[in-house]
Design a protein that fits this description.
By secondary structure, this protein is α+β, with helices and mostly antiparallel strands. It has nine helices and 13 strands.
Length: about 300
């Protein structure tokens, strides 16, 4: 397959223009109106405050806390802990490991948005719970998800969208996600040198497949000096484009930050062999088996899943 987005092939990083559409659907294909679509096209993300009610958030938190407790003593690759401590950083593949999160991943409030943006049926490419505890939650350095998914997983084109369901109030001071608006229109070709099985370290601290300082500054300059922060109350939902440059600072506040994260990929954009010499990452990071289009379902979490 032709590699439209080569990366990690040179010692010198570079920037290239995006070759794919940002939006594949239209206003008639789903719940988003023209204002939503125009904002996403320009900025690369959409934030919907309180898409889930307080009562539903209570159920979500209960399920998250139960999942975290169930995994405290689990020593498996899909449970990622912070460097230098036993604190859980992420639990992957939650849509396959728990009935609750499997059903949540099919909720029409999020799936219909993903289908409209991607112009097709979708499936879950990756899912996880992220937890950034107060006082000691570590940072996630700047990166484009698509660059990693392309080079290490074999995602052919920029036709995926991430959905983050926010379960704790996101303030400016507890390590919220930061995004560079408009950066999704440029692809950063990162420097070569990625070791095999890179994921074993990158899930704790990513050092390869990250932008160089000059490229990062160029993206911020093109945004007019903007770096947006995904702040908002629990129950809000953030959708962001697969190639947008994003990251988050450490959390030294007393307030924890947690979210449930689903990556929706178009059924027309299934993973191939990695666009590199690297071995494919494990299934819990990049779903390849038993891929089926999601059938959206409507339900009230507070009533259906208590």
């Amino acid at each position: 397959m032709v590699d439209f987005y080569p990366s990690r092939i040179s010692a010198t990083p570079s920037m290239m223009e995006r070759k794919d559409p940002v939006i594949y659907g239209s206003q008639q294909d789903g719940p988003l109106n023209s204002q939503d679509l125009n904002f996403y096209e320009k900025n690369g993300y959409l934030m919907f405050p309180k898409l889930f009610s307080d009562e539903e958030v209570d159920v979500l938190r209960k399920e998250l806390n139960g999942t975290m407790d169930d995994h405290k003593s689990v020593n498996q690759p899909h449970v990622v802990r912070e460097q230098g401590s036993d604190e859980i950083r992420s639990i992957f593949d939650v849509h396959r490991n728990t009935d609750f999160f499997q059903k949540l991943s099919a909720h029409e409030r999020i799936v219909n948005v993903a289908q409209q943006l991607l112009g097709s049926q979708v499936y879950i490419n990756q899912s996880r719970i992220n937890f950034k505890p107060g006082f000691k939650g570590k940072e996630f350095y700047w990166h484009s998800d698509f660059e990693t998914w392309h080079v290490e997983d074999g995602m052919p084109r920029m036709r995926a969208v991430s959905c983050s369901i926010i379960l704790t109030d996101n303030y400016e001071y507890n390590g919220p996600l930061m995004l560079i608006p408009g950066s999704h229109k440029h692809y950063i070709q990162c420097a070569a040198g990625t070791p095999d099985a890179h994921f074993e370290q990158s899930l704790k601290k990513q050092e390869f497949g990250t932008p160089d300082n000059d490229s990062l500054k160029g993206l911020v300059d093109q945004s007019g000096g903007r770096i947006d922060r995904a702040t908002g109350p629990a129950g809000s939902v953030l959708f962001f484009e697969s190639n947008i440059m994003h990251g988050s600072a450490g959390n030294i506040s007393p307030f924890p930050r947690s979210n449930v994260f689903f990556v929706f990929n178009s059924v027309e954009n299934k993973l191939q062999q990695p666009f590199s010499e690297l071995s494919p990452r494990p299934e819990f990071l990049a779903n390849r088996k038993d891929i089926k289009p999601i059938e959206p379902i409507a339900f009230d979490l507070a009533k259906t899943l208590v």
